[in-house]
């Protein structure tokens, strides 16, 4: 029996809709819950040999909400603590759209986090400037809001510099770097700050914000993250290296496709070692 052109087109459209629907259902039911622990090695130019091997736990974009449960966050926290990192960094966006109902629950779910050299955090574009940092501080997290703090590790100073999402100008970041005498690590929610960091000779940047694209399509890639230097993982610009985490939660749609939520355990290494 001959197949008409119209019938063939209808079959093609039906197949495409079925594939999209099936992929979306998988991303909703399974993809967004398939937590992955990663162990990237990050080579840092000028890193003192005493700091080579330092392990930093990076958890970002929690987005505690109706779609991201306490159990989702608790599972990530347990995975982080099982790795026993030397220092922990929280990369912002602890709730979605500043929803006050989830501020304290988000902080409470993160409460078990601890590390020998401390737990530090920054704010993302979804976080308010008062309630969220206060809730996290109540559990021992030091929030850096356009601020710098020094951590001594094996006799070597690490200068952690944390900026707000809206702090973008190189001159503003330069003011925070001025006077730093140790290895500077910029904690910036938005990975586009790689270029300002590079201009200021900051050797390492830790970021999130992209969710890894959240939906990564074969051949096309992470469409939603094309404006960033990299959707996830390592990026370099001149002498600066950056690691971007895929984060934990979701935005807009509660779906992850080919982009598992991530707890990253970074091992710093002296570049060239």
Report the count of strand segments. 15
Q: Please, what is the average pLDDT?
A: 91
Sheet with most strands: 7 strands, mixed
Rg over alpha carbons? 20 Å
Which overall shape is indicated by the principal axes computed on the Cα atoms?
A: globular
Total separate domains: 1
Report on the architecture of this protein.
The N and C termini lie far apart (68 Å). The protein has helices at residues 5-29, 70-83, 103-110, 131-137, 170-177, 194-199; strands spanning 36-38, 41-44, 55-59, 87-90, 119-121, 142-143, 147-153, 156-163, 183-188, 204-207, 216-217, 221-222, 233-237, 240-244, 262-270. The strands form three sheets. Strands 1, 2, 3, 4, 5, 6 and 15 form a seven-stranded mixed β-sheet that branches. The protein has a six-stranded mixed β-sheet with strand order 7-8-9-10-14-13. The model is unreliable at 7-21 (pLDDT under 50). It has 273 residues and is an alpha/beta fold. The radius of gyration is 20 Å and the shape is globular. Helices cover 25% and strands 25% of the residues. It has a single domain, classed as 4-Layer Sandwich (Purple Acid Phosphatase, chain A, domain 2). The protein is built from six helices and 15 strands.
């Amino acid at each position: 029996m001959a197949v008409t052109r119209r019938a063939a087109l209808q079959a093609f459209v039906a197949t495409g809709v079925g594939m999209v629907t099936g992929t979306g259902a998988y991303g909703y039911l399974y993809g967004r819950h398939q937590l992955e622990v990663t162990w990237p090695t990050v080579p840092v130019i000028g890193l003192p040999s005493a700091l080579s091997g330092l392990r930093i736990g990076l958890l970002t974009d929690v987005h505690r909400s109706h779609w991201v449960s306490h159990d989702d966050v608790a599972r990530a926290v347990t995975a982080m603590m099982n790795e026993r990192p030397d220092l922990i960094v929280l990369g912002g966006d602890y709730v979605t759209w500043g929803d006050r109902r989830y501020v304290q629950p988000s902080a409470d779910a993160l409460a078990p986090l601890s590390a020998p050299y401390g737990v530090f955090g920054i704010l993302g574009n979804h976080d308010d400037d008062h309630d969220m940092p206060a809730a996290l501080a109540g559990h021992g997290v030091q929030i850096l809001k356009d601020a710098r703090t020094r951590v001594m590790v094996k006799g070597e100073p690490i200068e952690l510099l944390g900026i707000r999402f809206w702090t973008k100008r190189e001159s503003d970041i330069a003011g925070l770097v001025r006077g730093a005498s140790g290895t500077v690590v910029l904690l910036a929610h938005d990975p586009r700050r790689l270029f300002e960091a590079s201009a200021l000779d900051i050797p390492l940047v830790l970021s999130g914000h992209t969710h890894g694209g959240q939906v990564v399509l074969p051949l096309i890639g992470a469409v939603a993250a094309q404006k960033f230097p990299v959707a996830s993982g390592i990026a370099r610009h001149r002498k600066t290296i950056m690691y971007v985490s895929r984060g934990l939660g979701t935005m807009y749609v509660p779906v992850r496709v080919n982009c598992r939520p991530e707890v990253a355990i970074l091992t710093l290494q002296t570049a060239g070692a």
